Amino acid sequence: MSKIKTVFQCQACGYASPKWLGKCPDCGAWNSFAEEKQSPKPLKSYGASEPQPLSQIVGGKEKRVPVGINEFDRVLGGGLVNGAIILIGGDPGIGKSTLLLQAVAKITTPPTPPLDKGGHGGVCSELKTVLYVSGEESPEQIKLRAERLYIDSDNIILLPETLVENIISVANDLKPSVMVIDSIQTVYTEELTSAPGSVGQIRESAAKLMFFAKRSGIPVFLIGHVTKEGAIAGPRVLEHIVDTVLYFEGDRGYPYRILRTIKNRFGSTNEIGVFEMTDAGLAEIENPSELFMSERPTDVSGSTVIASIEGTRPLLVEVQALVSPTTFGMPRRTSMGVDFNRINLLIAVLEKKAGIHLGGMDIFINIVGGLKILEPASDLGIIAAIVSSFKEAPIDSKTIFFGEVGLSGEVRAVAQAEARVKEAAKIGFKKAIIPKGSADKFKDNFGLTIIGVKDVEEVIDNIRI
């Protein structure tokens, strides 16, 4: 018999050690090593592929099949691609299983048959079958969720199974149009002796499902758990294997959910889809800018609107700042929805280049609606909100801001400036304070008064504070 080797493997990065370590020397994680048994059993061969010259490969646009949920199709890049393997991560209870159950219900819904000349209905096309594999919930639990979402279909096949070989065997016999694995941390392969959820099991199970998806052409959704830091549990190799990585974001205190694209081999990255959690499931929001602006207060200091770009979509969001004298020896700096280090940088620029002394002030920054703004184009709006709250002077509610601020106080141009202004014109804004480098390239102001600024001092002068 072949000897079984025991190693200790980091569950965060996959680093292997012959003995247990308190801290991983590779990624620095504490108490992340788990004992795993490795057998020298040879890996299964999936057959060799034939080499082909690049010039003889026929290229073409991949065929996409819309899911039927517009916001979901947006983050996927237009729809599902044959053989794609898609990983969806998010906090427990955020709505991952709910979204996928709604999506597979749309996939299995028959299209409305066209009417013939006599006004009679035509023949529906063949219904699509979806294999929903659940390793965490029983079929009865999924049925309860389906009843709450008013979903009932003979073409959604539930399979309570965790062994990946059995899952692939059933899928080969059933030949579904789409397969869902809920979740990848519960699936294991019999070729390894380690427990489900370990680094080796996640890697090998995902690899087997990837080979199945590519050879069969069946799209596969994988639901992944996340760690307390917000990253998908397991090594980063899981994200390298799949074609698309989606993160479900949202605060439990808000009804809004953001589905964000982190990686997509078939579309753009950093695309977002906006949903609202309701009693009947997730409802898509087609115009999130109007939603986030609907409850914005007017004539209040410390409130501004920034025009951000998420993927290909311009998005208007409100930034609120609260500046008040500190009662402690050390002033507090708090940010929600924006990078904390970026806030400290902007405060330093205001003190050094604009002469606004904030050393004895507590400063709180919040992006309304639970959104997370990642791009530096929000700098101009954040600075305007801080100054507005510090001076107790409201800014015109019909003014938007966008632009990147450098360490010298200069305002730098940003991409897709016209798309941002066009979105603001739709909502009803009348003025835009933007970088001068972007304003000089405008061909159409879309009915707005465009003010180009070169530095932070010009920003403060133009908002009349």
Structural descriptors:
465 residues; Rossmann fold; alpha/beta; 7-stranded mixed sheet
Could you characterize the architecture of this molecule?
This protein has 465 residues and is α/β, with parallel strands linked by helices. It has three domains: 5-38; 65-108 and 128-286, 3-Layer(aba) Sandwich (Rossmann fold), CATH 3.40.50; 290-462, Ribosomal Protein S5, domain 2, CATH 3.30.230. Helices cover 26% and strands 25% of the residues. The chain is built from twelve helices and 23 strands. The strands form five sheets. Strands 8-7-9-10-6-11-12-13-14 form a nine-stranded mixed beta sheet, sandwiched between helices. It has a seven-stranded mixed beta sheet with strand order 17-18-16-15-19-22-23. A hairpin with a 2-residue loop joins strand 13 and strand 14. Helix 4 (164-174) runs parallel beside helix 5 and helix 8 crosses helix 9. It is globular, with a radius of gyration of 26 Å.
Secondary structure layout plus pairing:
Layout: E1 5-10, E2 16-17, E3 33-38, E4 64-65, H1 70-76, E5 80-81, E6 85-90, H2 96-108, E7 130-134, H3 139-148, E8 156-159, H4 164-174, E9 178-182, H5 199-216, E10 220-224, H6 237-241, E11 244-249, E12 256-264, E13 272-278, E14 281-284, H7 288-293, E15 303-310, E16 313-325, E17 333-336, H8 340-353, E18 361-367, H9 379-391, E19 399-401, E20 404-405, E21 411-412, H10 417-427, E22 431-435, H11 436-439, E23 449-453, H12 456-462
Parallel strand pairs: 6-10, 6-11, 7-8, 7-9, 9-10, 15-19, 17-18, 19-22, 22-23
Antiparallel strand pairs: 1-2, 1-3, 4-5, 11-12, 12-13, 13-14, 15-16, 16-18, 20-21
Helix pairs in contact: 4-5, 8-9
